[in-house]
Amino acid sequence: MAEVAYFYIYKDAAKEWRWKFVAKNSKIIAVSSESYHNLVDCEHAVGLLKEQGPTAPVIGDDDFDRLRK
C-alpha cells in the first residue's frame, strides 16, 4: 500500500496519455474520462483536479437531495 494517495499518469494502448487517482489502500478511485495526445494536457487536467477538487461541492439527483435534507 502507498503511504499517500497519488495521481498515476501513463500511456494507454492507443499511446495516448491518461491519469488514474489511486487511494492510500492502492484502490483506483478515479480515472480520466478522456485521453490526451500531449503529456502537458494530461498534467493540466490533474492540476485542475488538485486545484478545484478540494472546494468542489457535492451535488446529486433528487434521491440524493431527499436523503441529505
How would you describe this structure to a colleague?
The chain contains two helices and three strands; from the N terminus they run E-E-E-H-H. With about 70 residues, it is an alpha+beta fold. It has one domain: Double Stranded RNA Binding Domain (2-Layer Sandwich). Strand 1 (about 5-10) and strand 2 form a beta hairpin. The relative contact order is 0.16. It comes from Pseudomonas putida. This is DUF1508 domain-containing protein. Belongs to the UPF0339 family. Duplicated subfamily.
Secondary structure tally, helices? 2
The fold-level CATH name is: Double Stranded RNA Binding Domain
Percentage of β-strand residues:
15-25%
Q: What value does the Rg take, in angstroms?
A: 15 Å
Nearest-integer average pLDDT: 96
Q: Which homologous superfamily in CATH is the superfamily?
A: YegP-like
Write down the CATH class: Alpha Beta
Number of strands: 3
Can you tell me the CATH architecture? 2-Layer Sandwich
- Which strands sit side by side, in order, in the main sheet? 1-2-3
Shape: extended
Distance between the termini: 37 Å
- The structural domain count equals 1
Can you tell me the residue ranges where pLDDT is under 50 for at least 5 consecutive residues?
none
Helix-strand sequence: EEEHH
The helix-and-strand class reads alpha+beta
> What summary fits the major beta sheet?
3 strands, antiparallel
Work out the helicity level: 25-40%
List its salient traits.
Double Stranded RNA Binding Domain, three-stranded antiparallel beta sheet, 2 helices, 23% strand, YegP-like_sf, DUF1508 domain-containing protein
